[in-house]
Amino acid sequence: MAKTPIPDVPPEAAGPGGLLSENIMHFGRVLRRAGLPIGPGQVLAALNAVEAVGLGSRVDFYWTLYSVFVNRRDQRDLFDQAFHIFWRNPDILERMMQIMLPDAGGAQQSAEDAEEISRRLAEALNPNQDGGDDNEEGEEEITFDATLTWSAGEVLGDKDFEKMSSEEIRDALDAIRRMRLPIMEVPTRRFRAHPSGGRIDMRRSLRAALRSGSDYIPLMKRKRRTRHPPLVIICDISGSMERYSRMMLHFMHAITNDRDRVHTFLFGTRLTNVTRYLRYKDVDAALERVGEAVVDWSGGTRIGHSVHEFNQNWSRRVLTQGAVTVLISDGLDRDEGTGLALEMERLHKSCRRLIWLNPLLRYEGFEPKSVGIRAILPHVDEFRTIHNLDSMRDLTRVLGAETPRNMESMARWRSAAA
Amino acid sequence: MTAIPNTVDEAEALLRSGDYLPNRSLATALYLSLSLGRPLFLEGEAGVGKTEIAKVLSETLGRRLLRLQCYEGLDVTTAVYEWNYPRQMVEIRMSEAAGDRDRGALEADLFSDNFLIKRPLLQALEPDEAGAPVLLIDELDRTDEPFEAFLLEVLSDFQVTIPELGTITAETPPLVIITSNRTREIHDALKRRCFYHWVDYPSAERELEILKVKAPGTAEALSEEVVGFVHKLRDMDLFKLPGVAETIDWAHALTQLDCLSLDPEMVNDTLGTLLKYQDDIQKIEGSEASRLLNEVKSQIAAAGAA
């Protein structure tokens, strides 16, 4: 802890300005290192705020800094911990010390979220720590593991995705990277000038009348702007999907980088939002981050549980403005479809269109026998396969059209599942 | 007219005088936003009293309340200003008939204050005798990103530019309160300019206090049971948890039904005021409701005995 920039003088002892402002600046820097988006602007704002509120009570001081530095709900815990450590609360400092001890490395892997944050904070408080730090080594190893998985996947490429050789896989990945997915455009409530639009643009008409100086008012028209709705992808990465998940990730990366308003979720036994990681332009960097963030690779599947998690925590945040949802899963559920039908119904009701992509569908004699599949089928608008490049390209046609293209086959699937 | 609070305590007292019971963190955020002239950004689940804060503020401070309800596609013509085109047309026709003005004068007349329809954002920049108005930008998450970007400009400089009239700047910036239900994340650039506060569900004691103020006709024993039951519900795995607004509604509904103490039947009959999703109602109705109710009653009894 020798290099930790914890202030020598408790803030209560220092007057406004001087040491206090320095300490607030250091506090801001600690928070920034811990991942909060804090710039000099916020630090200045914090100084002003503290000056305005005064240093009467610790509680007020806390909430003053809070209202300046925190601007998302999930930053609350981090701020709370940082505050108590930085502005010296012996109890919590002790707890933190324990977390920072070397033997925490083991616990960290099975990490609860809270502990994970604390570790981040510990690093932020102590950025120059070198040598004898098991924590960092532990992290190295995880990263290394993740990359290993990916390159191992590369070697095993001919294992599937229609039995491709690794070279073919590389070509396929290339093709995926170049893939563009036009989603159908839906009209918005905004307008733009258009010579043959359906509505009169009064503002431009009057301006034009005054400009031209003639006796009549030329009618200017306007038209609705169109825009593609948000796209939400929920992808199964459990053991049974292992052979496809790598391709799917490349596919999702291509889509995410092609447009705005794409949200991506992965699930096995639990749901992870990987949207931010997939925004990295470089596909390998993106996948490496995803590999670090997701803990349930190639394990069991709990579809019902994961969809429930999505409905509870995310549906209201990402499914607004008529989102199209794509569910990629083979429908084989470890929980035997418990509660799955209910959750799928809720999901279906919350989005504009629900498309289910199931790689099992490529088998000729595929029949919707499993409990999970039969629970999902009644609640999807579209049921398609996704096992090779062609089926991916097909998907572009599906997303490009406003209405489902294969009503008949949907009806057939539903009756087969009933 | 009340003066702007000078301390956090005063801010708390101000809200209390308007029958709003804030916790300390909300009072701090409000005080900061008022004294440093930055918008207050309130986020939280539906029905926890975000909009109410703005209403109470305008009432207790005696300021005008300007409300901008956001929706998708909200644009400058509905948020800031619009020219009154029909009147402009009539004016052109009349000046033609009278032949009394030349082009330049007509144009200056047409695009003057008389023909301007002011929308909330523009109104908020105008000076007011009672002091700068309270500007409530409600449910910002419902609008789209382009409007958010526009708002950024208005909120940082408190000025808007109308090409025909020039730039209009507020002498004293309005007290801005922004609310969001978080159906979408608001961009960091906007949040950065505001004081952020997450409005949480209140603790049981505070909610009981709120009930006393907001539903004064409710019997004390009933209030306790209502709050206890609602708090049990908030621990459950429901799609939409009941907010404070629902608690108050429920208390009103029960009082209206001359109910002095909760019984399972009454709970089942009035569950629709608390839960707004059929799945949730199905889950709670019947045996689950009576189980929760029994728990609440025994807890209250235990607390009374202690």
Task: Explain what you see.
The complex is a heterodimer of chains A (418) and B (306). Chain A has 418 residues and is an alpha/beta fold. Chain A folds into three domains: 11-129, no CATH class; 187-227, no CATH class; 231-417, 3-Layer(aba) Sandwich (Rossmann fold), CATH 3.40.50.410. Chain A has 19 helices and nine strands. Chain A has helices spanning 18-33, 40-53, 58-69, 76-86, 90-100, 104-109, 113-125, 134-155, 166-178, 202-212, 242-258, 275-278, 283-293, 303-313, 315-318, 340-350, 371-376, 389-400, 407-417; strands at 186-193, 199-200, 221-227, 231-236, 262-267, 271-273, 324-328, 353-357, 382-384. In chain A, the strands form two sheets. In chain A, strands 6-5-4-7-8-9 form a six-stranded mixed β-sheet. In chain A, helix 16 links the parallel strand 7 (324-328) and strand 8 (353-357). In chain A, helix 1 packs across helix 2 (40-53) and helix 9 packs parallel to helix 11. Residues 1-17, 100-115 and 129-160 of chain A have low confidence and may be disordered. Chain B has 306 residues and is an alpha/beta fold. Chain B folds into three domains: 8-75 and 119-199, P-loop containing nucleotide triphosphate hydrolases (Rossmann fold, 3-Layer(aba) Sandwich), CATH 3.40.50; 82-113; 204-305. Helices cover 51% and strands 13% of the residues of chain B. Chain B is built from 15 helices and nine strands. In chain B, the strands form three sheets. A five-stranded parallel β-sheet of chain B has the order 2-5-8-1-9. The longest helix of chain B has 19 residues, at 287-305. Chain B is elongated. Chain B starts with 7 loop residues before the first helix and ends with a helix. The model of chain B has no long low-confidence stretch (mean pLDDT 90). The A-B interface holds A 37, 41-42, 45, 48-49, 52-54, 59-60, 63-64, 66-68, 70-73, 76, 188-190, 202-203, 206, 209-210, 213, 217, 311-312, 316-318, 320-321, 342, 346 and B 7-8, 24-25, 28-29, 31-32, 35-36, 38, 41, 43, 71-73, 75, 77, 83, 85, 88-89, 92, 103, 106-107, 110, 141-142, 144, 146, 181-185, 188, 191-192, 194-198, 237, 239, 279.
